[in-house]
Amino acid sequence: MSGGEPLLQPDFAFVLLEACKGKGIHTAIDTCGFVAWEALDRIRELVDLFMYDLKLMDEARHRKFTGASNELIVSNLQELSRRGHSIVLRVPVVPEVNDDDESIRQIGAFAASLPHVDGIDLLPYHHMGVNKYGGLDRAYRLPDTRPPSHNRMVEIAHTLGTFGLTVRTGGQASLSYP
Predict the structure, then answer these.
(1) 171 CB neighbour count, 10 Å cutoff
(2) Which of 32, 58, 93, 120 has the lowest CB atom count within 10 Å?
(3) What are the chain's domains?
């Protein structure tokens, strides 16, 4: 399940996940975790894989770029990990937002501190959603932002790998570091 945020419709998510599990279908949910713990707690036993978005660790920068605190996102992720769920962190890499060395090190240190994370997927920024903003009569806030270079993505993967994390970049082959 993905969205938007599928857990903003927790009753529907529960019914769909329950039906899938009843038919033996592997379940996965793509979430940013910005929901009440009760929504996650209700569905978590029905989910085989959490694909959990993580954008920034710095509270002020997270609020600046997303318009919301990351406190709930972080605490929900910590609780899911503590309970042993299968989690892949998904980090959208956006130049001049979270691609600086300090932001990457903060994400790496946090991910390495979690008791259970199956890896990190680095997702390079792209322009695929730009036209949707026009259709919604909304201004696109990053019109001049360009996707990160392949070399920068490899550098970021290497930095995260130094924390002992398995890192994949943009659907490419897995880059593993000790």
Answers:
(1) 9
(2) 58
(3) 6-176 (3.20.20.70)
Q: What is the mean pLDDT of the chain?
A: 91
Check whether 163 has a pLDDT greater than 50: yes
Cα(88)–Cα(77) distance, integer angstroms: 11
Q: In what order do the strands lie in the sheet with 28-31?
A: 28-31, 49-53, 87-93, 119-124, 166-169, 174-176
Tokens read off for 103 = 């932001």
- DSSP per residue, 2-50: -SS-GGGSHHHHHHHHHHHHHTT---EEEE---S-HHHHHHHGGG-SEE
Partners of 124 in beta bridges: 93
- pTM: predicted TM-score of the whole model, two decimal places: 0.90
